[in-house]
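Report of the visiting student (M.T.), summer placement. My assignment was to run the structure pipeline on a short list of targets and document each run. The first record concerns PAP2 superfamily protein.
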Amino acid sequence: MFEIKKQLSAVLLFIWMSAVSYCLAAKDTVSTAPSLSCFVTNAEFGFWPQIKQDYKTHYGDYGLPRLFAGLSIAAVLANTGIDESLQNRWQSDLRNRTTDRISNINDHYVNNLSQYAVAIPIYLLSTLSGSYSSDPNIKSIARWGNHAFRALALGLPQQALLTEVLGSTRPENGPSDWKFLKDNRAVSGHAFFGSLPILTAAKLSDSLPFKMPLYALSLLPPLARINNNKHYSSQAFLGWWIALQSVSSVAESNKVRKSDKIKDMQLIVLPKQIYFHYTMQF
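After the run finished, the structure tokens were exported:
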């Protein structure tokens, strides 16, 4: 319990320091300490308005059908015996020293870099780096951090809720059938946390030779959990799927926000002049 409190305190301190750094960089004038509101609602940084639009997209016509599609696939795998067949096949025919070594490296990466206690400061600091530099590479890192943080804000509550509600257990503890509220392993956290930053980079990449290997690499966290017999295929798939849909919703949300910026357009024709007038939201 002490370790959990210590980690939580460190995360909150890190977020506050990030907020202060950003407000100072933005030259926000305050009478005492910089306000957290400038970090959340600042027009340039815009986490709060961005996340509001992300949720509208994720739980609207764009995101909900994709969520239900993923749940349907996982339901078939978990409740028909397919999960157990795939798990037995992997453990008996595919698992070896090489897959164990790769899976252990992956788990080390997820445990030390991708879990939210570490990932949140990384994403926020990456985003903040764009305020201190005009270098295109730094701006790309800042954009990645912004998208990854927003995707985490979308997917984390979903992952936490579904893993509790669906009630599936680990392969070592029993079958994968959904027994609502009976256990809390239905959605792999390692698959979700581990694949999200990789999927974000893949989504933001404009280069197909770079994008496709990243998408392939994002499959490593869920496959590692299957290899180590910690999750069934349905559980690993759901963790990866929620990460993918969260990243996709953020990207779609950005398109909506850009299209919403122009609020009003008018063409005014006078005898000797033509005016084009538009109102843009910033």
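The chain has two domains: 1-40, 46-280. The chain has twelve helices and two strands. I thank the supervising group for their guidance throughout the placement.
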